[in-house]
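pipeline stage [seq->struct] | target=Transmembrane protease serine 6 isoform X1 | organism=Lepidothrix coronata | residues=790
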Amino acid sequence: MPLIEAEEQEEDSSSLSNDKLESNSHHCLCYVPLGIALLVLAGAAAATWYFLDYRPWHLEPSILQFYCGSLQVLNRWYSPDLGQVESRAFWLESAKLQNTLKELIRATELGRYYNSSTVYAFGEGALTFFFWFTLQIPESQQKEITAERVNTVLHQELSTSFNSSGSLSYQTEYRVNPDSLVLLESSVKDIAVLKSTLGCYRYSYVQEDDILRLEGPDYLASSCLWHLRGPKGYMIKLHLEWTLPDCRDRLAMYDAAGPLEKHLITSIYGCSRQEPIVEILSSGPVMSIVWKKAMYSYFDPFILSAQAVPLKACEVNITLREDLELQGKIGTPHYPSYYSPNTQCTWHMMVPSLDYGVTLWFDAYALSRQKHDLPCTQGQWIIQNRRLCGLRTLQAYAERIPVLSSADITIAFTSQISLTGPGVQATYSLYNQSDPCPGEFLCLVNGLCVPACDGIKDCPNGLDERNCVCPAKFQCHEDSTCIEFSRVCNQQLDCVNGSDEEQCSEGVPCGPFTYRCEDGTCLKKPNPLCDSIADCKDLSDEKRCDCGMQAPLSRIVGSLNSVEGEWPWQASLQVRGRHICGGTLIADRWVVSAAHCFQDERLASPSIWTVYLGKYFQNATSHTEVSFKVIRLFLHPYYEEDSHDYDVALLQLDHPVIISPLIQPICLPAPSHFFEPGLHCWITGWGALKEGGHISNILQKVDVQLIQQNICSEAYHYMITPRMLCAGYYKGKKDACQGDSGGPLACKEPSGRWFLAGLVSWGMGCARPNNYGVYTRITQVLGWIKQTMS
Ligand SMILES: *[C@@H]1O[C@H](CO)[C@@H](O)[C@H](O)[C@H]1NC(C)=O
Ligand SMILES: *[C@@H]1O[C@H](CO)[C@@H](O)[C@H](O)[C@H]1NC(C)=O
Ligand SMILES: *[C@@H]1O[C@H](CO)[C@@H](O)[C@H](O)[C@H]1NC(C)=O
Ligand SMILES: *[C@@H]1O[C@H](CO)[C@@H](O)[C@H](O)[C@H]1NC(C)=O
Ligand SMILES: *[C@@H]1O[C@H](CO)[C@@H](O)[C@H](O)[C@H]1NC(C)=O
Ligand SMILES: *[C@@H]1O[C@H](CO)[C@@H](O)[C@H](O)[C@H]1NC(C)=O
Ligand SMILES: [Ca+2]
Ligand SMILES: [Ca+2]
Ligand SMILES: [Ca+2]
C-alpha cells in the first residue's frame, strides 16, 4: 500500500506542475517578460501549494466511504449450498470473490483508497454476489470521489476487461457482467447492521402464489437478514401478525437487496397493539428485512410471511352519479397494506354537473398545504394542480374539491421518499356547491359539516359558534327570544306567538337539534326517541326501546349506596378478581367503557378481563350476577392517551345477556339528543369515596349537574374537546373517582327512561372545587359505536 500511495502522490504533484509549465511555455513565445513572471508565479504557487496544502495523504484526516452492491457472474450458477453461510461452498466462493472485488478496485484509480471488502451473500440464477466495500478517502479528495464517480469508474473497468481477457485473476476465473453492477452508497450504520446479521443471512426466492414463512433468529444469532426476491413485475408483500402482547424485537424492512438506511421502508419496534396486523410492500421484486431479537425466547412474538404480489396499475377513471350518498373508495394498491415506496396513483373523476363538487373523506389522515418544496414525508397529493402533503392524525378529515369550469377532476398520490406508512384510503361523494352542509356549518379547517350554535366548538377555529343568536337554545321565530329546548313542543306557549309549539307533529327541515326518523324526515320535538309517544310517521322513534328502565325499587334511598336493580346497566370490569373499571351495558353482548382502562400494556388483552353484570357487592357474589369473558376489545381509533380525546372502548361479551329487571341495557341517545346544561344526572360505580381511597364495596351513586361546555373549557384551560362533557358542581364535593372510570353518566328523560350521556373519563383529582368531572360525550362517538357493533 505505501508504495502505491507514494507513486500516486508524485504523479499528482508532477502532473500538476507540468500542466502549468506547458501552458506557460506556450504563452512565453509571444510575451517573454510576462512569461517569466508567470513562471515565477507558477513556481510560487506550486511551492505554496506544496507547503500549505500538501500533506502526505495517509497522514491527512480521512473519512471512510461505504458502498453496498451486487454483481452477476455469468459463468457460475447459484446452488442451494451458497444460501448457507456455514457451508464450505459459501466460504470458498465468498473468499475468492472477495479477492476479485479487491483486485477490481485496485485496478482502478480508486485502488489507493481501498480499505476493505466483504462478500456476504449470493443470489439465484447466474450467480449474483452481494458485497460491501470501504474506501478510505482523504478529506481533500472527498468532494471528487462521489458515489457517481465510483460507479462510473468500476463500470468502466469491468467493461474494458470484459472483452479483453486480461492478466488479472478476476478476469480469468469469473466472467463478471459489467451491466449487472448495482452500487449504493451506504453508511457505517448500514455496515454495522450487515455485520450484525452475518451469522444469519437467509436468501429466498418468493414464487408467485407462494407464502413463505420467515422464522425468527435462533439462539445462535440474535439478528438475521432476509433477502427476498420475487419474479419480475411483482412486489414483495410482507405480512406481520403479532402473537404475543409484549416484545422488544425490532424489525426493519428495506426496499433494496441490503439493509440500507436510505432505502428503509419502515421499522417496527416492540409489539404494537394499535396495528395487530401490518402488511408492507416493496416497490419491486426485492426486499430485505432485518429481524433483531431482544432476548431469546422459544416463540417468535409474531408471524412473519412473505408473498409476491403483482404490481398494480394505479390509474382509475371514475364517473360519479347524481347522488349525494357515498359512492365508492379510492386507495393505494393492496390497501390496507402500507403503500409501496414507489406508489404513483392517479384518479380521474367525472362529475355529473358543475353544480357539484367532490368530497374525499379520509380517516385518521389529513391534507395540508406545504409552503416549501420539501418532499412530503407521508404522501404527496396533487389535486387539480394544488400540491398538498398528507399527514397521519387522530381526527376525521374531508377534502372538498370544488368544480369550476370542467367536470373533470384529477387527483394524484405519490410517495416521495422510501419511508412509507399505512395504506391511504378515501371515500368519495358529491356535495352541492351552493349548499355543502344542509342545516349545518361547513368547517373550512377540516372540511367537515358540524352543528352550528349548539354550544360546542366543533370546528377547531370555533367559527361554528360565532355570531349565534341563541347558543344551545331554541330561537322563537317571531322575535328571536331564546327559550330552553325542554320548552319546545311541550304543549305550552313559551314564544310570544307560540312558534315553539308549531310544526310539532310534522316534518321540518333538518338541523342540529332535529331528530331524524328512519324515513329521512326530521322532527322538531326535542329528544323524541323512546318516550312512548309515536312521533315519526314510520314509528321508528319507538322501535327498539327495550332499555333504560330501572327495576321497581323496594325503598326510597337517599344515601350514596344504591339499591339492587337501581342501575341494571352497570358493569364491573375485573382482572384476576380485582375491580378495575366500570362499564355500561348498551346492547346484547356489548358493554361500553373508557379506552384509558386498557391503555396499560398489561391490561390491553381482552382475554384477561371478566365483565360482571347484575353485581352489587364487590366483596360477595350475589345470586343475580352473571360473569362474561371478553372476546373482542375495540378502542376508538382516534383515542389519544395524552389528551384523553375519544376515550371510549367497546367490549364484546362471549355469550348473550339475558335481560331481566336487574340486568338491562341503558338507552343510547340519538345523535341529536340534547342533554341540557343544568340537568341533574347520575354517575355510578364502585370507585373510591375520596381521592386516593379504596374502592367501595357497595355500588355507589352520585348526582351531578351538566355543565356548559364553555364554562368547563375555561376551568380546564381549553383542554376540553368536543368529545368531552363536563358534570359536577362549582364547589366540588360530588364527583367520580378512581375505579369509576368507564362507568355511566346517566340522565333520566321525562318519560322515565334513562339515557347514556357520558362515560367517566378524567378529572383533576376527585370532587375538587372548580374541577368538574370530565366524561366522554356519547353523542359524539355514537357513529363509531354503531359501526363497531354492526
Ligand atoms: C481501514 O480503515 C480503518 C479505519 O480508518 C483503519 O483502522 C484500517 O487500518 C484500514 N485498513 C486498511 C487495510 O487500510
Ligand atoms: C464488449 O462486448 C460487449 C458485448 O459482448 C459489446 O456490446 C461491447 O461493444 C464490447 N466493447 C468493446 C469495447 O469491445
Ligand atoms: C381514462 O380516460 C382517459 C381519457 O379520458 C383514457 O385515455 C385512459 O386510457 C382511461 N384510463 C383507464 C384506466 O381507463
Ligand atoms: C343545492 O342547493 C341549493 C340551495 O339550497 C338548492 O336550491 C339546489 O336544489 C341544490 N341542488 C341539488 C342538486 O341538490
Ligand atoms: C304575533 O301575532 C300577532 C297576530 O297575528 C301579530 O300582530 C304580532 O305582530 C305577532 N308578534 C310577533 C312578535 O311577531
Ligand atoms: C361485604 O361488605 C358488607 C358491607 O361492607 C358487609 O356487611 C358484608 O359482611 C361483607 N360480606 C363479606 C362476605 O365479606
Ligand atoms: Ca357546534
Ligand atoms: Ca312550549
Ligand atoms: Ca317518540
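stage status: PASS
auto-comment: Helices lie at 2-27, 32-53, 88-106, 147-163, 169-173, 188-196, 709-715, 778-789. Confidence is low (pLDDT under 50) at residues 1-55.
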